Amino acid sequence: MKLVTAIIKPFKLDDVHERLTDLGVKGITITEVKGMGRQKGHTELYRGAEYQVNFLPKIKMEIIVTEEMTERVIETIAENASTGNIGDGKIFVTDLEEVIRIRTGETGDDAI
């Protein structure tokens, strides 16, 4: 099992979510986060005054998938989250030792 964590632009969430659902992904955890990478924020103008925005709004998606689905999920996120511009985000893949569904006690792939 793998934990796929993706940091994407907020306006791409609906596209990515729809395609992952079509792929058969059953569960996704979404968190609104702020962060910065190479772009290091940007300058905005508010009521005539410039100010620096260091942390930009992003969406953090966490998806637990089987080994077999991992590559398809990564490709789907990358294709649908991309704008071709700086700040599109990142995808992280982590091994999971165990998953347990609290309600039923199911473990492993059955708990996904």
Concise structural overview:
The protein has 112 residues and is an alpha+beta fold.
Describe this structure in words.
- This protein is an alpha+beta fold and 112 residues long.
- It has one domain: Alpha-Beta Plaits (2-Layer Sandwich).
- It is 21% helix and 37% strand.
- The chain contains two helices and six strands; from the N terminus they run E-H-E-E-E-E-H-E.
- It has a four-stranded antiparallel β-sheet, with helices on one face. Strands 3-4 form a two-stranded antiparallel sheet.
- Helix 1 packs antiparallel against helix 2.
- The longest helix is centred in the last third of the chain and has 12 residues.
As laid out across the biggest beta sheet, the strand order is 2-5-1-6
- Which fold does the CATH topology refer to? Alpha-Beta Plaits
Oligomer: single chain
Average the pLDDT over all residues and give the rounded result: 90
Mind telling me the CATH class?
Alpha Beta
How many beta-strand segments?
A: 6
Return the CATH architecture. Answer: 2-Layer Sandwich
Shape call? elongated
User: Which blocks of ≥5 consecutive residues have pLDDT under 50?
Assistant: none
- What share of residues are in beta strands? 35-45%
Give the SSE string: EHEEEEHE
Topology:
Layout: E1 2-8, H1 13-23, E2 29-35, E3 42-46, E4 49-53, E5 56-65, H2 70-81, E6 89-95
Antiparallel strand pairs: 1-5, 1-6, 2-5, 3-4
Helix pairs in contact: 1-2
